[in-house]
Every structure is written in C-alpha cells, then in structure tokens.
Design a protein that fits this description.
The chain is an alpha/beta fold and about 250 residues long. It is about 50% helix and about 10% strand. Strand 1, helix 1 and strand 2 form a beta-alpha-beta unit. Helix 1 runs parallel beside helix 2, helix 1 packs across helix 9 and helix 3 runs parallel beside helix 4. The protein binds nicotinamide-adenine-dinucleotide.
Length: about 250
C-alpha cells in the first residue's frame, strides 16, 4: 500500500493505544512519521517499530499542551523531511469524576491537553500547509463530545470543542488546500478504557449494536482513509468508528 507516500506525518500521543496504531498504519501506507508522545521512550519504541518494518520514522517527544514542545516536535519533523503535510492530533487522557468533584485544575489540564493541544498543533501546522497549498489535519475527538457523558463533563466538553475547532478550520481553510476532519471513536480497547471498571466495560459492550468494542486498528483505518486522496471530498466531517453506539 502506498496511498500516503509523499506525506510527512506528525502523530501526537502515538506512544501507545490508538496513536501507535495510527502511526503504524500511516507508515504502512507510505508516510514518513514523526511519533510524538509525552513518554519519550514510548515514542522512541514506536518509531523503532516502524523503522524495523522498513518505514521511515523519528521520535518527537513532548507535551502537546506546551507551545515550546509543539514547536520542537514540528522542528524535528521539518529537519528530517522539510515540512509536515499531515497532522494527527490524537494525544489525550481520560479522567472520570462526578461533576461536583471536578476541580478547576482538573478542568484546565483536560482542556489544555485535548483542546489547547489540538489548537497548538493546528496553529503550528497550518501556515506551511497554506504556503504549499496543501495539507491534511485529522483531529481525534470522541463520540462523548457528540452526546455528553456522565462523570466525564470536562472530557466531553474538550472533545466537543475539538469538533467545533475542526469544523471552523474546515470552513476557513478548505478552499486554500488544507483539508480538516475529525474522528469520534466509540469505546476502543486501549489502556485508556481498561482503566474503567470491568463491570462498566461488560455493560457497555452488551449495549453496543455490534456487541463489542473497537480496536485501535479500526480507528487507524479511518484516519488513513481521511488522510488519503480517497477522502478528498470529506471536509469538516466527524467520522464515527463506534460499533454503532452513536448513529448520526
Ligand atoms: N480508547 C477509547 O475508547 C477512545 C474513545 C474515543 C476517543 N479516544 C481518544 O483517542 C485518543 C487516544 O486515546 P487512547 O485510547 O489511545 O489512549 P492511551 O492512553 O492508550 O494513549 C494516549 C497516549 O497519549 C499520550 N499523551 C497523554 N497526554 C499527552 C500529552 N500531553 N502530550 C503528548 N502525549 C500525551 C500518552 O502518553 C499515551 O501514549 C485520545 O485523544 C482519546 O481521548 C479514545
């Protein structure tokens, strides 16, 4: 497969889970991939996996909520490949809290990593994409940003913000060659979801039309599609690899 050859991608939060699967899939389809993660050794390990499979990758560690770190990860990719043509904003975390227990610090960190991180990544990527007249951005939201969630108000609000940001950038940038879309996964088998109780996971799986959670590779396939020319008509959309949980 070489649907993405020619792309120089940056995938945030790609040291594990969905981001790792995205990085591996983009590389398998021909993209060169800068692997970001807060955990430097995890980013290095995924970059090593890609290289071992014959792909081209670098590790670009850093915290997406910090402007200086965003700049450093882009600079690393630019030093290797000239520019970033494909940005996947995926880094994130989950924190389950009854609304009355969410502190301002909890709120700020949630918004900082998800929404500010996504903003900072787009802000750093877009000028060179506009200058080149081409570029693709895929933002990883969540179906909880579409329907809300009990004990995840800050998470759902951050993800809803990412969907609004995606639509706005799509409206503003599409005619100038930059295509922006979002992915809103349902429950996917990663560490993030394994942190929730087994009882919750069993009940949740039972209520899904498909009867089971998705795998990181299912989300990666959606991202690879959106990144490719196969999706050239997709603008400002939010695709839902979600086992049928949310149908819009
Ligand atoms: N797993 C699901 O069911 C699910 C569903 C919908 C959306 N999502 C979203 O998908 C994305 C990936 O989630 P996942 O399930 O793979 O989680 P995960 O915990 O397995 O992986 C997240 C990765 O992001 C990294 N990370 C966290 N904060 C970071 C930061 N500030 N800067 C850089 N990297 C950071 C972590 O180190 C980790 O490697 C998240 O945005 C999450 O909200 C997940």
């Amino acid at each position: 497969m070489s649907r993405l050859s020619g792309h120089a991608a940056l995938v945030t939060g790609a040291g594990g889970g969905i981001g790792r699967a995205i990085a591996l899939r983009l590389a398998a389809e021909g993209a060169r991939v800068a692997v970001n993660d807060l955990r430097a050794e995890a980013a290095q390990s995924v970059a090593g996996e890609i290289a071992a499979a014959g792909g081209s990758a670098i590790a670009a560690p850093g915290d997406v909520s910090r402007e200086a770190d965003i700049d450093a990860m882009f600079a690393a990719a630019e030093a290797a490949w000239g520019r970033v043509t494909l940005l996947v904003n995926n880094a994130g975390f989950l924190q389950q809290r009854p609304f009355t227990d969410i502190t301002p610090a909890d709120w700020d960190r949630m918004i900082a990593v998800h929404l500010r991180g996504c903003f900072l990544g787009c802000r750093r990527a877009v000028p060179s994409m506009l200058a080149a007249g081409s570029g693709v951005i895929v933002n990883i939201a969540s179906q909880l940003g579409q329907i809300g969630a009990v004990e995840l108000a800050h998470y759902a609000a951050a993800k809803a913000g990412i969907i609004g940001l995606t639509k706005s950038l799509a409206r503003e940038l599409s005619k100038r060659g930059v295509r922006v879309n979002a992915v809103a996964p349902g429950p996917i088998n990663t560490e993030l979801v394994l942190g929730l109780s087994e009882a919750w996971r069993a009940a949740k799986a039972a209520e899904l039309p498909l009867g089971r959670f998705g795998e990181p590779e299912d989300v990666a396939a959606t991202v690879a599609f959106l990144a490719s020319e196969d999706a050239r008509i997709y603008v400002g959309q939010t695709l839902g690899p979600n086992s049928g949980d949310v149908m819009l």
